[in-house]
Design a protein that fits this description.
The chain crosses the membrane at residues 21-47, 59-83, 95-116. With 418 residues, the chain is mainly alpha-helical. It has two domains: 2-123 and 343-391, no CATH class; 124-331, Ferritin, CATH 1.20.1260. The chain contains 14 helices and no strands. Helix 4 crosses helix 10, helix 4 runs antiparallel to helix 11 (345-356) and helix 5 (155-174) runs antiparallel to helix 6.
């Protein structure tokens, strides 16, 4: 039984010594690797800061360099502290305290460095994504404005039907089928008057058609130029300037399309159809005048019905959802990366990993140190001593066994004056 315990203890001692040897070998280049990670993060931080600074003078360059150096030094010092101290903690309170400090420091590093690193890695692509989203919004607004304008053009059919009905009634009146008095009397002239008003309205509606088509064609051409700017080469900042100019033109085209809608015009004409009626002079004969009065009353009722129908159709067109108010807002690379973070998850992962990769090393060291303490904690002191420890102990015992040598007093100086 004692042989088994002795063999197990020897195995634990060898494991502990082997782990310590590995740690000693790894510690020779760990600071160098940590410094390289910190410098790489500082470089990308410099690129991110440079994209945020609006000025391009020497002071801006100095500010970007100073910030990136501060970030590199902060990352190196912070992880050096954690790599040394956290794995060496033996109490739960110490581990929890340093773990909280590690979490707070990691959040600080993300706040001061990682998002700038992401801006340097994917800033241009994020700005292009913003431009593409804006183009989609403008295209949707253009199509909606064009669809509403075309829907208003469809009111021309309702106006044409109303006009045809009054023309047909005037023809019936000319033959005497309405008032019983043939010819072009008062009722005939009233019907022709309203048919002429509707014909003029129909002409106005048809005149808007080519203008709507031309405006929609111009809008699509501007959209094509905006898409070409998104995929073109060169700095995205310069392309954004041209994109902004085209967006202003497109906003004007969309506003023109909204104004070309004839729905408000048709609604006003419908309200005026009955209200602006000019009654013609009636016949002098009482019987004919009575027949004309009765017919005109029926015609006015028909006018009111037609006006309500046209007004309802125009209101239905005007109630269609209007195009969304779209305005292009220039955006920096850092803001674009934050706004469209979901589209650039790999860039964000790389930007954060380069700053927080030492946390994995901290975890590894913590596990290894715990394994060493567990193996050595079950051994006696003499079982954990190495050859170097024994040699140091032998020298210490030799010093203790050697009696201290007495120091002879210094001879007194002879007095030559005697």
């Amino acid at each position: 039984m004692s042989n088994t315990i002795s063999g197990q203890s020897a195995q634990q001692a060898r494991t502990a010594r082997e782990l310590r040897g590995h740690l000693a070998a790894l510690e020779t280049f760990t600071p160098l690797a940590l410094a390289i990670l910190a410098i790489a993060s500082g470089i990308y931080t410099y690129l991110g800061v440079s994209g945020l600074l609006e000025q391009t003078g020497a002071m801006s360059l100095f500010a970007a360099v100073a910030y990136s150096i501060a970030v590199s030094v902060g990352i190196f010092v912070f992880w050096s502290y954690i790599l040394r101290l956290l794995p060496s903690m033996t109490t739960m309170a110490g581990r929890i305290g340093l773990s909280v400090a590690t979490l707070a420091g990691s959040l600080a590093i993300i706040a001061m460095s990682s998002w700038l690193n992401a801006a340097a890695l994917a800033g241009s692509a994020a700005v292009e994504q913003h431009l593409a989203e804006t183009v989609q919004d403008y295209q949707s607004a253009l199509e909606t404005a064009n669809a509403n304008a075309l829907a208003a053009q469809g009111l021309a059919q309702d106006v044409a039907r109303a006009r045809d009905s009054f023309v047909a009634l005037s023809e019936q009146e000319a033959s005497g089928a309405l008032s019983g008095v043939g010819g072009q009397g008062a009722v005939y002239r009233l019907l022709q008057q309203k048919a002429g008003e509707l014909s003029a309205l129909e002409t106005q509606i048809e005149a808007q058609g080519p203008q709507i088509s031309a405006a929609f064609l111009t809008g699509n051409e501007i959209l094509s130029r905006m898409r070409a700017l998104i995929v073109a080469g060169g700095a995205v900042e310069q392309r954004s300037i041209g994109f902004a100019e085209q967006s202003v033109r497109l906003a004007g085209v969309i506003a023109d399309l909204r104004q070309l809608s004839v729905a408000p015009l048709v609604e006003r004409a419908a309200s005026d159809l009955a209200a602006s009626t000019v009654l013609p002079e009636l016949a002098t004969t009482d019987d004919i005048r009575a027949a004309q009065n009765a017919t005109i009353t029926s015609v006015l009722e028909a006018l009111d019905t037609r006006a309500q129908t046209l007004g309802a159709a125009a209101q239905e067109v005007q109630s269609l959802p209007p195009p969304l108010e779209t305005t292009y807002t220039p955006i920096s690379t850092a803001d674009a990366v934050i706004r469209y973070a979901g589209n650039f998850a790999p860039s964000w992962a790389g930007a954060i990993a380069i700053d927080l990769l030492p946390a994995v090393l901290v975890l590894i060291l913590t596990v290894v140190q715990a394994a060493i303490r567990q193996n050595e904690g079950q051994l006696d002191t003499e079982q954990t001593m190495t050859l170097a420890d024994l040699e140091a102990a032998r020298r210490a015992l030799a010093r203790l066994d050697t009696p201290p040598t007495s120091v002879a007093p210094a001879p007194k100086a002879r007095d030559d004056s005697a």
